[in-house]
Design goal:
This protein is α/β, with parallel strands linked by helices and 592 residues long. The protein has five domains: 14-172, Rossmann fold; 180-334, Rossmann fold (3-Layer(aba) Sandwich), CATH 3.40.50.300; 340-418; 422-488, Arc Repressor Mutant, subunit A (Orthogonal Bundle), CATH 1.10.10; 493-587, no CATH class. Residues 37-171 form the TIR domain.
Length: 592
């Protein structure tokens, strides 16, 4: 084994006959099950490259911080017989650190560990992979060029093709193609070593990767700040009547690290609370997806009130919006379209799980990339759609893409929706309209009662097609353009009469439906957020308001007051959530 450890008594967990851990040693660096938290970090490294100059120092620092870290003893015997113990140690750790050095790829042990890292991450999102590029070009690692090319040439002579491909895939797993230069540029613009308050605005087309870049920068620099907040989908939030107050409340909650702060009566009170509670900290704040409705001073107050060292990253599709932020103090950074080379790499990652197209697919891949126009979201979705398909299917989809190439991104993305099975389409529309931010298990209960078959397979299909994501908290995520495309499909069910659509999520349309006692058998889901209406402005909802909604299966009524007998009014209801205007949640979840 190529790992070494400065502590000679460090041992691997003992194995039972079935490969599971039978006991743990007293040494604090021994492996234990992930839920117990007794073992936190596993270090994967090539001993001759980094043991003396880097890895031992890292290990000592982690130990001083009381972070329990597993690192192999340099005297550990090499051989396949120790692999089950190493695999157990990896599985039972939470954070997997891969120190990628010049000769890392020459070691089959390092590569096996890396594959195990990826396997654990896919099985349990709580596992975190942290790559460290030590004296090596990340491009050589990602593309298997330079010393990594030589290493794999040797492996191809000794090992079967599947094993070698698994190792290659592990080196490409979960990486963000084409954003390294953006991360460096945005970080430079932030001038982290300077005093004062700095704002950087990222602008570009929808789906170009602004949010991805902002989050990557956030993850990289957040530890340099006292407190941080990533405020997503601001454009959508501000479409709600109480959007500004909700935004202020979320920011204060993030910075103060408290979920419950009491109510904020108006945006002026919110600004004062931000000044009193947030401005005392050196903060990093991401304002994602703002449009012309967003006014920095109206939401957060004067930028000058924030502590020295505070940094803002703001993303928008509209450059003019950013020019008005903070009295023209916002530095502008344009996120341009991907180059053809990077576009090909990103597309191939999703279409072939490789960095290059296989023989016979080069021209088809280039044709699709030319239609994509350098939009990462489109490349991911179409690549995922074509993964594993035969060449005739590729040619058929290319014809379709050419027909819609002059239309908007939503029309191009809709091709991925059209090929879904009917039940999978319904699941996608549910997520787009009202399940973003919902825990996966909760939605599964609802869909299960609808007799949908192979639910996990359908959800995985959407994930594999890059149409949805599951966050680290096991909640649904969706790109805003994918969300908008899904909601537009529902709107087109009936443009003029919203109460004849399958799903209603707009608060004003929901209010009109209920107050005017509208409805139809087509309505399956109703999201009614009335918290923006004053206490006396909304009359209590009674039985007669819902008589025309016999097929309702999902009802969310926030800020609503109910009065009367509702017995047997909702025979098909499977989800009900209600919250009084200024009170606690009355009903969280009901499965009938």
């Amino acid at each position: 084994k190529d790992h070494q450890n400065s502590a000679p008594n460090n041992k691997l967990p003992q194995q039972s006959n079935d490969g599971t851990s039978a006991s743990t040693v007293e040494n604090p660096r021994s492996a234990s099950s992930l839920p117990t938290g007794e073992h936190e970090v596993f270090l994967s490294f090539r001993g001759p490259d980094t043991r003396q100059v880097f890895t031992n120092t890292l290990f000592i620092l982690l130990r001083r911080l009381s972070i329990r870290t597993f690192m192999d003893d340099e005297k550990l015997e090499k051989g396949d017989e120790i692999w089950p113990s190493l695999a157990t140690a990896i599985r039972q750790s939470k954070i997997h650190v891969a120190i990628l050095s010049e000769n890392y790829a020459y070691s089959k042990w390092c590569l096996r560990e890396l594959v195990k890292f990826v396997e654990c991450r896919k099985q349990d999102k709580r596992h975190i992979i942290l790559p460290i590029f030590y004296m090596v070009d990340p491009g050589d690692v990602r593309h298997q060029t330079g010393p990594y090319q030589s290493a794999f040439q040797q492996h191809e002579k000794k090992f079967d093709s599947k094993t070698v491909q698994d190792w290659r895939d592990a080196l490409n797993e979960d990486r963000l193609v084409g954003i390294d230069d953006h991360i460096r540029a945005v970080t430079d613009e932030l001038s982290l070593d300077s005093e004062g308050v700095t704002m950087v605005g990222l602008h570009g087309l929808g789906g170009i990767g602004k949010t991805t870049i902002a989050r990557a920068v956030y993850n990289q620099i957040s530890t340099s700040f006292d407190r941080c907040s990533f405020l997503e989908n601001i454009r959508e939030m501000q479409e709600q009547k109480n959007g500004t107050i909700d935004l202020q409340h979320k920011l204060i909650s993030n910075i103060m690290r408290k979920d419950s702060l009491g109510s904020i009566d108006n945006d002026v009170e919110g600004k004062n609370l931000i000044k009193d509670r947030v401005s005392m900290f050196k903060v990093l704040i991401i304002l994602d997806d703002v449009d012309e409705k967003f006014k920095f001073e109206d939401v957060l107050g004067n930028p000058g009130q924030f502590a020295s060292g505070t940094r803002f990253i703001i993303t928008s599709r509209n450059e003019k919006v950013l020019r008005t932020v903070g009295e023209n103090q916002c530095k502008l950074y344009e996120v341009g379209q991907m180059s053809p080379r990077i576009s090909l790499e990103l597309f191939c990652k999703h279409a072939f799980k490789k960095t290059r197209p296989p023989p016979g697919y080069e021209t088809l891949s280039q044709d699709i990339i030319s239609i994509a126009g350098g939009l990462p979201l489109f490349l991911e979705v179409v690549g995922s759609l074509l993964y594993g398909e035969e060449k005739p299917i590729w040619e058929e989809k290319l014809v379709q893409l050419r027909k819609v190439s002059l239309k908007g991104v939503a029309e191009r993305l809709k091709i991925s929706y059209d090929v879904l099975e009917a039940e999978t389409q319904q699941i996608f529309l549910d997520i787009a309209c009202f399940c973003i931010g919902m825990e996966k298990e909760i939605a599964i209960y609802m869909w299960s009662d609808l007799k949908y078959l192979s639910l996990l397979s359908r959800i995985n299909s959407l994930i594999q097609r890059s149409m949805i994501k599951i966050g680290y908290d096991n909640k649904f995520q969706m790109h805003d353009q994918m969300r908008d495309m899904g909601r537009e499909i529902v709107r087109e069910e009936n443009i003029e009469q919203p109460w004849k659509r399958s799903r209603i999520w707009d608060p004003e349309e929901a209010l009109d439906l209920l107050q005017n006692k509208r409805g139809s058998k087509q309505v399956k889901a109703l999201c009614a957020n009335f918290t923006w209406i004053p206490d006396l402005g909304l009359k209590p909802l009674k039985r007669q308001h819902f008589l025309k909604l016999p097929e309702l299966r999902y009802l969310e009524a926030l800020g609503a007051r109910f009065n009367g007998d509702f017995g047997n009014i909702f025979p098909n209801l499977r989800w009900l959530r209600s919250k009084a205007h200024r009170g606690m949640i009355i009903i969280r979840l009901i499965f009938i």
